[in-house]
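tool_call predict_complex ligand=adenosine-5'-diphosphate
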Amino acid sequence: MPLSEFDIINEYFSKLTPYDESIETGIGDDAAVINTPAGKQLVICTDTLNSGVHFPEQTCASDIAYKALAVNLSDLASMAATPAWFCLNLSLPSIDAQWLTQFAASLAELANRYNVMLIGGDTTSGPLGVTITAGGYVECGKGLTRSGAQADDKVYVSGYIGDAAIALMQNENNNDETTVYLQQRLNRPEPRIALGLALIDIATTCIDISDGLIADLQHIAQASQCGMAIQEQHIPLSPQYLSCSEKQGAGLQPALTGGDDYELAFTVPVQKQPLLEKQCEQLDIVVTCIGGVVEGDNVTIFDAEQNTVTYQETGYEHFR
Ligand code: ADP
Ligand code: MG
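tool_result ok
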């Protein structure tokens, strides 16, 4: 007998993560019941990965599972929330036991690493697609948003920018060290949870870089009704990015307009810069100042000679 929807839930998902006492009712009822901590606000996000749109069709099950959860944890990180639980909506073209085993194992690994509990979902047949909805908690009023940047704040990013975009320009089947590193950055982004939490009471805004650096900075600029002046030569690029972009003559375009990095971009008042740098050093997190907040309503990119650089696209948009 082929597996039914309920067999899949029981076999692969109902015991994916242990529950703590906050879960009154988890998988198996019509809805989950959660005891929410007093004094905290619930932060909720959701993200879909569709085959052929968000990942190439040949992507392995473990990379799809990892990324589907990681991009949601990244959204919680950018709001400075501590992740707590998630729901998994899975659309599958067919039932493939090996695929499901790998998918569930990879999902469990990341979920357990960040202590997030799978509390429900939906399993349907259809084109391959994964939607995760995740919830986390933040102390009342302490969450970070896209609005709140003030003129003269500094603009920072975490890690290296552009690795994921340049990975998409490589032949992923090579297995030299550079390709392996770039594929890892594309398929296994590390959600910057610890950084998001460290930014509480320091940053004035925060966003995760999913669409593209310029596009996501524009989201902050728009929400905060400010402009930004970004120094192109300060954007942190990995040695692997530099060697590939040189070979392809791609320059900074992938770093500025490619998405999928899931690093954080945030603004910090000048007087908080020493505190930020101390915190990041303690946590062993690399952050780089790439520019500043200015009056206006636009993100302007300057090259090393202080000429304005323009790019036709600023980032990925669906339906365009
Ligand atoms: P209902 O018909 O009441 O919507 P379902 O039959 O869809 O419930 O699901 C039964 C239970 O299994 C529910 O608790 C649901 O949240 C859970 N569930 C279904 N699919 C998944 C999944 N892919 N991952 C985790 N939980 C799931
Ligand atoms: Mg029901």
